[in-house]
């Protein structure tokens, strides 16, 4: 019976954008989404990259060790938390271009350190982040500007500091050094602090959302066949080839595109009439906010659980995950790696970011090492073979396929 129910849900078209979806459980709704082969293939390696970054952070958190390292036994104890299904040792050996296992005779136990290539990439990422503080400040100010009170909890920002490309010491290097823009406040609960926006960046009195820039570009094209009035409230949509859209669904998307809404940087009191049209406008405002949130991230992707921490502060009175599922033309939700990860669909093409930025370019180098895995290495040790350059050429060809 359950199998038939799932099949029936999966067979149905995506939920209407202008009506409430049918009553289904959360897991059923996630299971009913249309899979995108390109994003799923990308997530096969990206989910391991997230584990590698977590281990890398643990290693670099021990600078007093010479070299910076962490015991394999410690990582084994964290295997469940890090989702290392076969244990830390097996996972580390899968990526010899990133990790080296060595035996510390003085402590009588094996340790793990980063390879020179991984250390170099980590250094390049740090340089890329610290070299453009104005851009980092701009992202943080934009994030605070979307809040109803221009205030956000510090712990929520800590959860997405990497996604936003903030320095790991952003409290000192960004917030404390710009007291005319940011103010740290004590919250009503213990050990909790808030960041409040008290000033503006000179020359940035009004922010323009990423979708508004897209509309301007589209309207200025010589071959633009869309009515410019219809573009006023439109978002870019794109669907995977396997997703067959019925005429009725396309018509409802077109109708939804025309619905007016309050933008992510516009003043919003939170009060809205509870009519059907009012609820649709609230939903479209929520879509605009999460669209802009993803646009602010370095890789145009974030874990759904992390963005949920901002929901109350942004005035979103909707389930964020359902919001992504309700709009498959703009967002793609992946469940690989025992986490729900959302991508801004328009920002990607063939598994790569369309508009590159320095931090993403460096992080892509680490992902390339993950994709290479053990290919081109001798089975008996971790030394690179003479064919590594050929393997990297194969990798470049794979990315451009």
From TrEMBL:
Q: Domain PORR spans what residues?
A: 35-374
Q: Name one Pfam family in it.
A: PORR
Biased composition (Acidic residues) is annotated at 388-401
Region named Disordered: 382-401
Family annotation (PANTHER family):
ASSOCIATED SALT-INDUCIBLE PROTEIN, PUTATIVE-RELATED, PROTEIN WHAT'S THIS FACTOR 1 HOMOLOG, CHLOROPLASTIC
Q: What is this protein called?
A: Protein root primordium defective 1
Organism of provenance: Tanacetum coccineum
């Amino acid at each position: 019976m359950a199998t038939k129910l799932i099949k029936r849900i999966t067979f149905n078209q995506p939920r209407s954008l202008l009506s409430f979806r049918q009553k289904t459980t959360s897991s059923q709704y996630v299971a009913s989404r249309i899979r995108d082969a390109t994003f799923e293939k990308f997530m096969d390696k990206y989910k391991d990259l997230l584990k590698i970054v977590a281990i890398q952070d643990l290693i670099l958190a021990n600078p007093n060790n010479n070299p910076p390292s962490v015991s394999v036994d410690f990582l084994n104890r964290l295997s469940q938390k890090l989702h290392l299904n076969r244990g830390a040792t097996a996972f580390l050996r899968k990526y010899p271009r990133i990790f080296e296992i060595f035996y510390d005779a003085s402590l009588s136990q094996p340790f793990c350190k980063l390879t020179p290539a991984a250390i170099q990439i980590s250094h390049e990422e740090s340089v890329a982040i610290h070299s453009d503080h104005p851009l980092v400040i701009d992202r943080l100010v934009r994030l605070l500007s979307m809040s109803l009170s221009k205030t956000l909890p510090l712990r929520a920002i800590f959860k997405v500091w990497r996604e936003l490309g903030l320095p790991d010491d952003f409290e000192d290097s960004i917030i404390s050094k710009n007291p005319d823009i940011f103010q740290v406040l004590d919250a009503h609960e213990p050990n909790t602090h808030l960041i409040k926006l008290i000033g503006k960046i000179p020359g940035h009195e009004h922010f323009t959302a990423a979708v508004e820039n897209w509309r301007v570009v589209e309207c200025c094209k010589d071959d633009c066949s869309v009515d410019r009035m219809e573009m006023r409230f439109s978002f870019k949509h794109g669907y995977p080839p396997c997703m067959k859209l019925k005429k009725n669904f396309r018509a409802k998307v077109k109708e939804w595109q025309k619905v007016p809404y309050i933008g992510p940087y516009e003043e919003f009191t939170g009060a809205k009439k509870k009519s059907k049209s009012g609820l649709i406008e609230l939903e479209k405002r929520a879509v605009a906010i999460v669209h802009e949130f993803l646009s602010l991230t370095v890789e145009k992707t974030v874990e759904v659980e992390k963005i949920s921490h901002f929901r109350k502060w942004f005035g979103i009175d909707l389930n964020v995950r359902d919001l992504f599922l309700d709009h498959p033309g703009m967002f793609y939700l992946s469940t690989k790696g025992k986490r729900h990860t959302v991508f801004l669909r328009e920002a990607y093409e063939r598994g790569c970011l369309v508009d590159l930025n320095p931090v993403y370019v460096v992080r892509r180098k680490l992902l390339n090492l993950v994709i290479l895995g053990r290919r081109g290495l001798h089975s008996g040790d971790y030394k690179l073979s003479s064919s590594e350059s050929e393997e990297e050429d194969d990798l470049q060809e794979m990315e451009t396929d």
